[in-house]
Prior knowledge:
Mean pLDDT: 94
Radius of gyration: 14 Å
Largest sheet: none
Distance between the termini: 27 Å
Amino acid sequence: MPPVNTIVVQTILLPPERRSEEALGQAQRLLTKALEPMNEAVAGRDYMIGNLSGVDFMLGHAAFMSRRLGCIPESMNNLHGYVDRVEARPAFQKAIQT
Length: 98
């Protein structure tokens, strides 16, 4: 199961008595590690390959959800800025609200 799915299962779907702090911690560490290349990729760019593209439709939402789950450390400033830019787009706002 991908780390983000494990995080959702361990924090939202399972009742508290069935949750595993060990599984949650491992998934959070794996997801954070997987986000490091994204943080580097957006350094000095607005979007992943410069201009908004299909890559951003996929990765932007994944990064948005990762941040909502608390898996983007504050030290990943590039990625936080990227999520802010993706989140500010009117189409993204419309999609999240529906």
